[in-house]
Amino acid sequence: MVEKGREVADGARWENRCWLFLVMVMTVFVALAAGLTLWPYVNSHLTHSEGSDKVDEKYSKALKITNQFFDIQKSGKLEDNRIPWRGDSGLEDGMEVGLDLSKGMYDAGDLMKFGFPMAFTATILSWSILEHGDQWKRVNEFEHAQESLKWITDYLINAHLSDNVLYIQVGDPELDHRCWERPEAMSERRPLTQINTSYPGTEVAAETAAAMAAASLVFKKPDSTYSSLLLKHARKLFSFANTYRGSYSSSVPQVQKYYNSSGFEDELLWAAAWLYHATSDPYYLNYATVLNGRAFGNWGSPTWFSWDDKSVGTQVLLSRVNFFNSKGTSSEEILALQMYRRSAEAFMCVLLPDSPRATTSRTNGGLIWVMEWNPIQYAAASAFLANVYSDYMLESGTHSLYCDGKLYSPADLRNFAISQADYVLGDSPLRMSYLVGYGDKYPQYVHHRGASIPVNATTGCSDGFVWLESTHPNPNVAIGAVVGGPFKNDSYIDSRNNSMQGEPTTYNAALLAGLLAGLVSTSSVPKSFT
Questions:
Q1: Which tens digit of pLDDT belongs to each residue from 206-258?
Q2: Domains along the chain with CATH numbers
Q3: Per-chain mean pLDDT for the chain
Q4: Residues 6 or more apart from 361 whose CB is under 8 A from it?
Q5: Which of 1, 99, 167, 480 places its Cα 20 to 30 Å from the Cα of 432?
Q6: What residues does 162 pair with on adjacent strands?
Q7: Which residue among 48, 144, 399, 447 is the active-site one?
Q8: Residue 336's closest CA among 385, 299, 390?
Q9: Residue 167 belongs to what H/E stretch?
Q10: Is 277 a catalytic residue?
Q11: Strands of 180-291, DSSP E
Q12: From the CA atom positions of the chain, what is the Rg in Å?
């Protein structure tokens, strides 16, 4: 993972002094440059493309496929099961403390429920539905996406036992990884892990607050009672996270090997930003801007958006306020919002391949590539943010993005997002899709227990490893799975034992789904989530 506060590779670092002066100077300069220097270029690139309101069948098909992975990952008593090789599982999760934690989703190819990345999955899925709900509807996947989201939020509600107690994990990863079995056949003990005032976990509590706040907006119209319940939990979890500050990696050392956190400040801002969108309560905006923006906001130093680092996500999300909803905010808040927006733009400049600030962290085939473990997470996350920011620019009539002497249009950002989506879907040196079930060629040996073991096989914890070692392709297709991705030389080893490249995560599916939904068509984004 990239440590929080560490710059994106090759991204220029802004000086951490004279911020307000810099904002005013840059704003004037960009306005003059856009208005006087390259207006013909900007004007000609203002829209994405001719006829772009039509549904793109490629992305529509890929989105429908991706959305099925959430069904594969479901725990609990399944309802309207769409996956023939999946059944009920985890029905006793939480019973030892009198809770129903049977729902939720398994993290990856294993049978763990890790609350931190699961909550992130819910936040991203909510964000996509809020920004591109019309596109989800146009491909008839809107209700399906809502159902998947609610499967997670039902679990998160039950996991929040009291104001300052949150269960963040079901299962022991050490015990779980000694087994290779179908979720329906689980028999090992499933211990629970909680955070509380004595053993805090600010980043997990704050991410869960963000997930519930974002989801409350999704369900505000179809189910106002459920929306209010989510918002009630979100407020309490944010208070818990902010009052009892401490990293869950310290309180729960066993997570360091699996989902180690590099800090919690970004999650506090991320949660505050979502709570502001959900409530319009000025406290949360003031918290994220005047009170903590400079200290926690990582202004001007781009980092990679992921389950662990929400800095750039917050910068883009608060740019939305600057673009559309800054009326009534104080001058101090407006200046801080401008800093969030400039920071988001700095990240966009890093992504654009011909920008003076362009990162070299990409494969020869053009995929953003940060590290060997799960590189597609970073590519999909970056592309998702780029496309969202492109939509903000279009909707607000913002013609250009300034990157060290060059101007770029919303279409340039969208084209970058398309390049990342297309690579994942098979436009790569290997001509292989990294989305299982899409195209003629995709991974056959995905590191996924349920997919690798035949439904009629009778196996226990340890004797199921015969299926891990099998040389035959998976008998069950994990449709919608987004594997980790290629090495930096664009190569990929399709082996079930290659968990580094071949294990799909639920949040990968959420990030890719969010990206694809935005590319289905170019319908306008809403100026307000409420």
A1: 999 999 999 999 999 999 999 999 999 999 999 999 999 999 999 999 999 99
A2: 54-520 (1.50.10.10)
A3: 91
A4: 8, 9, 10, 368, 369, 370
A5: 1
A6: 165
A7: 447
A8: 299
A9: strand 166-170
A10: no
A11: 192-195
A12: 22
